[in-house]
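In this section we walk through a basic example: taking a raw amino acid sequence and producing a predicted 3D structure, encoded as discrete structure tokens. The instruction is simple. Fold the sequence below.
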Amino acid sequence: MTAPTTALPSTAPPPPTPGGSFVPPALPDSRAARLRWAATDSWTLTRRTLMHWARQPGTLVLALLFPVMIVLMFGYLFGGQMDVPGGGDYREFLMPGMFAMTMVFGIETTFAAVSTDAARGVTDRFRSMPISPSAVVVGRCTADLLNSLVGLAVMVACGRAVGWSWHDGLLRALGAFGLFLLLRFALLWIGIYLGLAAKGPESLVAIQVLVWPLGFLSNTYASPETMPGWLGAIAEWNPLSATVGAARELFGNPGWGGDSFAARHAVELAVAWPVLITLVFFPLAVRRYNRLSR
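The resulting token sequence is shown next.
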């Protein structure tokens, strides 16, 4: 006689609804269980990104070497013609700006990864699986922040090689690096939102059109005081300029100074701008993610 069988609970992802959207997985009962679930799934998706980079290191290496090339070009090719406000070495003036530019260039990496997953249906597949709804975006953020740490380490080594250093102690220098990562965290949500909203990775050119003016219309390479009045005002209030100005102050590197509110409160603005950007784009990114395939 054959023993009766007991049906096991299915682990298959929930089927799509007739409208094309997916039924989200049920949440665990307790808050602690939900946090453990989200953390475990986020780390799994972070490892997915890290494994992709390990298998295709060429793209990552080129992305890390690009800002090094910019440093060498501006530091040695154009640097001899640059006057630092108040005097000082131009390469010491340049390096804090290049640290911040490395964070800004990361928007393109985030956008390309998110839009590619969305266009290929990978994101929809994640949404249909019994994983934490927040894990996809949190995993992406964690991986990109780790990438940014590596990028900062490469840029610090490059800066030391060209004669840059901090002069006001390690604690203030760590504060400056923290501001760079805070800026990167805020810009991550812009990249995630635009990646989810874009029609596909071919829209990367549009993101580059956004990133390059943001980077160059700042105090990264030249003082806003040398620009026409209206253009200098825009450069002063650029969120990137706040981070760069604050970092120069914390590092003890030459800066562009000035008596404007933005110049006198660079550290405060370097915190306020990323917080404001996160408050705007984090809910936009989450809402866009939840509305995929609807």
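Looking at the output, two observations stand out. Residues 1-20 have pLDDT under 50 and may be disordered. Residues 186 and 279 are 9 Å apart (CA to CA). In the next section we compare this with other chains.
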